[in-house]
Description:
It is a single chain. With 208 residues, this protein is mainly α. The protein has helices at 5-20, 27-34, 38-45, 48-71, 78-95, 97-106, 112-138, 147-163, 165-170, 179-197. It has two domains: 1-46, Arc Repressor Mutant, subunit A, CATH 1.10.10.60; 55-197, Orthogonal Bundle (Tetracycline Repressor, domain 2). The longest helix is centred in the middle third of the chain and has 27 residues, at 112-138. The radius of gyration is 19 Å and the shape is elongated.
Amino acid sequence: MKKNSKDAIVNAAISLFNTNGFHGTSIREIAGKAEVNVANISYYFQSKEGLLEYCFMAYYENYLIELENGMAELESGAYKCLKKVIENLMNYHYQNSHLSRFILRELSVDSQIVREMMSTYSVKERYFFTQILEKGMLRKEFNKVNINYFILQLKSLLSMPFLNSQYISEVLHIFPHEKYFAEKYLKEIYRWLDSVLTIDTLPKSNIG
């Protein structure tokens, strides 16, 4: 059995899913790209659907770790906490751009696995964002906002560059997988936060 064959299978699957789509990719193609025997995929994941579920869980579990790490700043201030959460999530996306692109694209499909992910991981994410916003408004750090619409806008800002990476790279000549992009784009998100959330007496972000 090839050393690190499980990681090789996952990496090959993500690459092929991004190029050919989940349904357009066969187990044999994944095994060939990973340079493993087809039986290895059955051993680790049982089926292609099991491999898909593993990719979803790997994405979300690490995504929520980054979110939870940012939540540790909440007692220091809601605005500081929100900025840290956004920074963590942006870095996670750019460092895992291929996985992020695939998962974000799959989330637009109405399937059993997507509904399961939504009912567990996405609901937990909404709970964390709601906590930050409610505490910020209660402490008068934030202007009053509609929480659901704010989350919708924030999620769009965080996901769009990775969901539409082909358009961004080919048309805008911006590359979401690069650290430079993450740093520059983070500043733009902070500008948006300042315009939407901050009360006039609150210091603005040092965005340079």
